[in-house]
Amino acid sequence: MKQWFSDLALNVAVRMVAGKRYFGCEEEKEARRCQKVFRNFFHFFGLFLVSDSIPFLGWFDSGGHVKAMKQTAKEMESFVGGWLEEHRHKRDSGEAKGVQDFMAVLLSTLQGSDFAGYDVDTINKATSLNLIAGGGDTVAYRKEENINKKERDDARHHMAAPNQDPVGEKPTETT
Fold this sequence. Notes:
Layout: H1 2-18, H2 28-45, H3 50-53, H4 65-93, H5 102-110, H6 120-159
Helix pairs in contact: 1-6, 2-4, 4-6, 5-6
């Protein structure tokens, strides 16, 4: 069930931001690759490294986390860069009609803008990734947390002895 909620939350976030559908679609291989990359991204997003607190220990990559982060960043750049190029192609060819996703709106909004040396594509990709990370991972985590709490409460209620309260804290005396 955890995997299902993660896939659903990621699918909703990616669909709103990039207009892609990766959960329950025909392109199963690309969908699984996308889910794996995002799963790694979310894992590294919350990972604590010693070099984060003590920067001069940056050369010390125990566990190979920095190397894995760089690999995940390359794969993520490939996905999001591909989405951006696809949106740019649709806009230039005139296919982008009707309802647009966030990436298409941001692409048209940032077109021709100057951001003091910052690349418009980088701004678009970073903003889109942050929205997916905030929408996908957080929603999945909160849903899982709520379901686990409900399961614990139900288990406590059904497993309590007749002379105990439903939470199972202390028995009540019967006279």
